[in-house]
From TrEMBL:
Protein known as: Methyltransferase type 11 domain-containing protein
Signal peptide from the UniProt entry: 1-32
An annotated Gene Ontology molecular function: S-adenosylmethionine-dependent methyltransferase activity
The entry's keywords: Signal
Record-annotated Methyltransferase type domain positions: 81-185
Pfam family, any one: Methyltransf_11
Keyword Signal (UniProt): yes
Entry superkingdom: Eukaryota
Signal keyword on record: yes
Amino acid sequence: MPPKPGRLASILRPWGLIWFSICLHWEALTQAVRRDGLAALGRPRQIQDAASAKLLTGNFIAYEDTTIVPSLVQAAGGIVLELGPGPGNQIHRYDTSLVKHVYGVEPNPHFKDDIDANLDKHSLRDRYKLIVCGVEDSDVLREEGITEGSLDAVLCIQVLCAVKDPKNVMKEVWKLLKPGGKFIFWEHGWSRNRLTAVAQACWNPAWSTFVGCHLTRNVLADILNSGEWENPHEIEEPEEPFSLLPRIQGVLVKKKA
């Protein structure tokens, strides 16, 4: 395993991804203007969605292979809801002997082609359905049979940093899970190291604008405060004092009545 970067390298590291994302936003903007004329300037969300789709379709799978993500995904079974699957990076990691059905809930429609391509490569095609909405869109989910207490597991890999209202998302997740259902997550949030937290606050405006997620959220509190869990003490927080993306991870079980 390569040595972890020191504080200065960690502080400067976000600039590379921010600059890359700026270039992708410019590319998406120019393509939209060529296609739709100046009317494209009135649809910034569509430009951002197109840029985000290109940003997240790349080397993330290789990076996640070096983390706990593959083993976390394999803990999902039964009826699963995957929050923000993006380009479908987790599709090949599911244990197909455990999974009955997976609903990918993704508000960015630009990921559909990537998800379809990943499904064509693997054996979940008949057990995976993409729903283009947010988990807060209860009417849309209800039409698919996703109601309170209907899910065996919710998979959440680097999503709560990017949603508009993580507190509300987590409350919806808790409601949708069956008693005894699993919330499986790998997220990042606010650092407990003061100097690192200052660096996060400095980078966050540019990072959240162009990369699309937030560096300064208290994701752990949002998860724990969403409802009652049987095993909150099992949440893992690896020691990463210099990282601007310190992780929290684990498999929480919804408390039974």
